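tool_call: predict_structure(chain=1)
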Amino acid sequence: MKMTKLSTKHLLGIKDLTQEDIELIFSTADNFKNVINRPIKKVPSLRDTTIANLFFENSTRTKISFELAEKRLSADVINFSASGSSVVKGETLIDTVNNILAMKVDVVVMRHPNPGAAVFLAKHVNSRIINAGDGAHEHPTQSLLDAYSIREKLGDVKGKKILIAGDVLHSRVALSNIFCLQKLGAEVMLCGPPTLLPKYISSLNVKVEYNLRKALEWCDVANMLRIQLERQNIKYFPSIREYTMLYGINKKLLDSLKKDIVIMHPGPINRGVEITSDVADSKQSIILEQVENGVAVRMAVLYLIAGRFGE
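tool_result:
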């Protein structure tokens, strides 16, 4: 029997979702993608639903994508930024959220610098929680839109060889992508300097390759991660120039491969570091498709999570 609702009340991480949950999100996103390509891009699906976007960490693409998805669904939207709030006066996370929930908020979308913040919140407040990124832990909607984009481009995720290259150690995108892609039957390889690959990587059933060319020759899709200098308090490699020479993709390297591979990037791109502009803007790149798909996938997640009210 085909699933019509998610098996979970919240979206805290990919590890909490089943393969059936992911496929339900994708089929729902297919419908919403048709909606956002129509002349009238709004549907009344979440009318009278109030959603609070709580961002305790800077964000551009994710925040705009969620807000646009919410408005396309006709929800009432509250935007909260920690920098201009009572958090700077010492207010706790639970007090902040409970004050917002007292205003009758139904769903909370939260980004927080501390891993596990969304899980903590789900245990202590009476609202549906969607994790928009918690530290270097998980970023479930990004991995869903990445896998959805691969499915759209290649027809299926199952059996595909996906490379995740770059700063895996500090990336919440990498961990969520590994969980999501494996649940959908893909093979995953990680590539980067040994200092930027976490020690627990051997427990995740992924391949590891330190030579970028070999990794690119193996894969069907390369998802290039940026160097997250804002999360690094020590030097993990000698210089940006050396990193780019060893782990950056340029058009010459891409053209020298014996096959066409799909290029992805979760953004923001450090052009000229992990990928050059002529790669980011090439026909093999689906970076802008990822951005478009992000709205449809987040519409699907919001609709399915909010749709569990009254249970």
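agent: Residues 5 and 304 are 6 Å apart (CA to CA). Proceeding to next step.
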